[in-house]
Specification:
CATH superfamily: 2,3-Dihydroxybiphenyl 1,2-Dioxygenase, domain 1
Distance between the termini: 19 Å
Number of strands: 8
Strand order of the largest sheet: 1-4-3-2
CATH class: Alpha Beta
Keywords: Lyase
Radius of gyration: 15 Å
Protein name: Putative enzyme related to lactoylglutathione lyase
Shape: globular
Number of domains: 1
Helix content: 10-25%
Structural class: alpha/beta
GO molecular function, one term: lyase activity
CATH architecture: Roll
InterPro entries: Glyas_Bleomycin-R_OHBP_Dase, Glyas_Fos-R_dOase_dom, VOC_core
CATH topology: 2,3-Dihydroxybiphenyl 1,2-Dioxygenase, domain 1
Pfam family, one: Glyoxalase
């Protein structure tokens, strides 16, 4: 089994699609204003957004995007006007993370984990 895609809700797909394109994802399915699918710039994963006009603020969704040059990516995105909740920071679980939110308030974490993503020192053998 392999993770194919993640789908999130949005009250405004135009804003959401623009935000995720700004992060570097490529729009591959345009069924606006109700649905869009984007492709990650690396790997095979896709990310989709569907319209949910009645969605309520929540703290249930966190989306992680990994980049090998996290600090450079954050700098480029800040130059494009993206606001971050936290600067890149080394975490105790051996990942480097920067936190932000999409236009609907979904938590986004840009990170670099390298070998520690799937094989931290405490991995189960």
């Amino acid at each position: 089994m392999n993770l194919n895609q993640v789908t999130i809700s949005s009250k405004n797909l135009d804003k959401s699609v623009a935000f995720y394109k700004l992060l570097g994802l490529k729009l591959i399915v345009d069924a606006l204003p109700r649905y869009a699918r984007l492709e990650c710039p690396d790997g095979e994963a896709t990310f989709s957004i569907h319209l949910n006009e009645d969605m309520q603020p929540n703290q249930n969704t966190t989306v992680y995007f990994e980049d090998e040059d996290l600090d450079h990516l954050v700098l480029k995105l800040k130059q494009k006007g993206v606001n971050f909740l936290s600067e890149p920071k080394d975490q105790p679980w051996l990942w480097r993370e920067a936190h932000l939110q999409d236009p609907d308030g979904n938590a986004i974490i840009l990170f670099k984990a390298g070998q520690h993503r799937k094989s931290p020192p405490w991995v189960i053998s």
